[in-house]
Structure formats: structure tokens, C-alpha cells
Design a protein that fits this description.
222 residues; Glutaredoxin; Glutathione S-transferase Yfyf (Class Pi), Chain A, domain 2; four-stranded mixed beta sheet; 4 strands; binds glutathione
């Protein structure tokens, strides 16, 4: 299998956690932001990574979107499962996964790129890094007002997810799509001191899940 990705994307990390959890061998191809559209548009009709290419006869040519990749991997190899046996719990896990994917992963992006352009500029002040950060900020409309909204959304998310502190998994008694989505989509916050100070439990969970999945720890937690 081949995973088309941006090396720094938290949505690509989400797909890698699932591949790692299932111990499915795969390779990655790192696309260049901007040029990625030329490759992705004809393949999937979309412009986003991750995209998984199973490269096997009888399998789809390309699967775009991290949630679809979860579903595909579950049918490709269901052991160990990403889904929970109890229907009600699995519904809860999908609801959390969707909320993390559509709302919280985006809020993380806003807060992270704002940090990297200001207080966290020293992490990589190089011209090329700051250029990419500024292109992303412009692409997504990241500014003080939208970052304030995203920060509030993240604060709310931390309250909702704080139940995780007292149990190993977000839903049920084994790892699910909800845990993988949370560990990946909140991982960019590992570089931001304010989040590290206020929510140490979150980063312990992120480390644990990365270890379970055999995935390299995100920057800030290595
Ligand atoms: N919901 C999508 C989101 C993927 C996404 O936003 N990917 C970003 C990188 S983090 C991307 O490819 N952006 C490039 C673009 O939109 O052209 C998923 O789960 O795969």
C-alpha cells in the first residue's frame, strides 16, 4: 500500500495510526504542497491528503479522506478491529470521530499555525518554513478573530474529552476510531506550552496511542 501524504499533516498522521495499529505494511510518498493538486485531482476528484493507494488487484485504486481510510482498512483487515462490538458504543465512537475530524482538527490547525507564525516562530524561523505557514494561514483564513473562535472550540473540546483522563479509551473497553482521531488531530498542540501545561493528561494519551500503533511521536513529544 502507498500513502500519499504531507509529512506534517495531522490528518495523514491519523491514517498512519490506523495502518500502524493494524500492522499493515505500507510506504509513504510525501507530496509537495501546491503541486499535490496535480496528482490528487485526477485520482480522487479532491485536493486533500491523506490518500491511500492499495496497489492490489481487485481493490479500489485510491481512497481519499482519513475516515474512508479507516473504513477501508477495517474491511481489508479487521484484526485488530478499529470498531467496537457494541452498536451504541460504536455509534458514539463515530460521532466523536466525525466531530474531531470536521471541527476539532480544523480548530487545531488554526491555533497551531497562528502559534508557529507568532510566539512559536523560533521553532523554525527560516524563510521557507514561514512562507509555507503564511500560505496555509491565507488558504484557510487564519487570523486573530478566527483563531479566537478556534481556541474556544478547543477549550470546549478539552472539557468534553477530559473524561479520558480516568479511563484508557474514549469509548468502550478497547481502542477505537475515536482514540485514533483524538491522538492524531490534537497532536500539533504538543508544541504549544499553554496546552502542555493545562492538559498534561492529553499528551500522555497521545504518547500511549502512538506507542500502541508503532508510530513515531509527534514533534514536541519525542
Ligand atoms: N477530512 C479530511 C481532511 C484532510 C485535510 O484537510 N488535509 C489537508 C492537509 S492537513 C490538505 O490536504 N490540504 C490541502 C488542500 O486542501 O489542498 C480527511 O480526514 O482526510
Amino acid at each position: 500500500m502507498l500513502l500519499l501524504q504531507f509529512s506534517t499533516s495531522h490528518y495523514c498522521r491519523k491514517a498512519r495510526l490506523a495502518l500502524g495499529y493494524k500492522r499493515i505494511p505500507y510506504q509513504v510518498e510525501n507530496l509537495t504542497p501546491g503541486l499535490h493538486i496535480l496528482k490528487l485531482k485526477p485520482l480522487t476528484g479532491l485536493t486533500t491528503v491523506p490518500v491511500l493507494l492499495p496497489q492490489k488487484e481487485g481493490e479500489p485504486e485510491a481512497i481519499a479522506d482519513s475516515t474512508r481510510i479507516f473504513n477501508y482498512l477495517e474491511t481489508y483487515q479487521n484484526d485488530p478491529p478499529l470498531l467496537l462490538p457494541d452498536r451504541t458504543q460504536q455509534t458514539q465512537a463515530w460521532l466523536l470521530e466525525d466531530w474531531l475530524d470536521e471541527s476539532i482538527g480544523t480548530a487545531t490547525r488554526f491555533v497551531y499555525y497562528h502559534f508557529r507564525a507568532g510566539e512559536g516562530k523560533s521553532i523554525d524561523p527560516s524563510f521557507s518554513s514561514q512562507l509555507v505557514i503564511n500560505i496555509v494561514r491565507r488558504q484557510y483564513g487564519i487570523n486573530s478573530a478566527t483563531v479566537a473562535l478556534a481556541s474556544e472550540r478547543l477549550k470546549n473540546a478539552m472539557d468534553i474529552l477530559s473524561c479520558w483522563q480516568n479511563k484508557p479509551y474514549l469509548v468502550g473497553d478497547r481502542l477505537s476510531v475515536a482514540d485514533l482521531a483524538a491522538a492524531a488531530l490534537l497532536s500539533p498542540l504538543s508544541l504549544i506550552p499553554e496546552y502542555r501545561q493545562h492538559y498534561p493528561w492529553l499528551f500522555e494519551k497521545i504518547v500511549t496511542i502512538h506507542k500502541i500503533c508503532g508510530e513515531k511521536l509527534p514533534p514536541g513529544l519525542q
